[in-house]
Protein: Pyridoxamine 5'-phosphate oxidase family protein
Amino acid sequence: MSLTGAAPAPVRDLAQRKSDVLDTLARDSHLWLATGGPSGTHMVPLGCAWDGGHVVMATHERHRTARNLRADPRARAAYGTPADVILVDGPVEVLSPGELPAGFAPPSGLPLDPARVPGCVYLRLTPRRILAWRHRGEIPGRTLMENGRWLA
Structure:
């Protein structure tokens, strides 16, 4: 039972959770990004877009997030609410508009566009681990991706 007295939703299998995660990645335009640096953990809300294989964000080059990622590319992105959690762990590339790799097409819909805003950079997170759960019953099977490979 939940605090409201309602029974929790049934436990989703891995395939359904993967489908729900991909829907959220494609739909949601904001996340929380956590990085680490000399002054400790740093977490900020950022606009984002899913390009089908990466989470793409943008920020100003001078901000702590970009500085932290240049020193240590590991990050965690968080989507959702405490009742519907998605965590995406992986390395993040910091890319200025002039150094985009071949094949990188910046997704449309980013609230901050480095191609038009001087001093801004793209952040491209490659998922290596994804966790997702909606309630206590889904916590034991919360890992959907490990080492960059979907488990479902």
